[in-house]
Amino acid sequence: MTRPQDTLATPNLIRRHGLALAATALFLGAAVGMSFPPSFAEGARVIPAPQEDAASGDAAALEVAVLAGGCFWGVQGVFQHVKGVANAVSGYAGGEQKTAKYNIVTSGKTGHAESVRVTFDPRQISYGRILQIYFSVAHDPTQLNRQGPDAGPQYRSAIFPMNAEQARIAKAYIAQLNQARVYPAAIVTKIEANQQFYPAEDYHQDFMTRNPAHPYIVRHDAPKIEDLKRVFADVYRGDPVLVAGRSSR
Question: pTM, whole model, 2 decimals?
Answer without folding.
Answer: 0.84
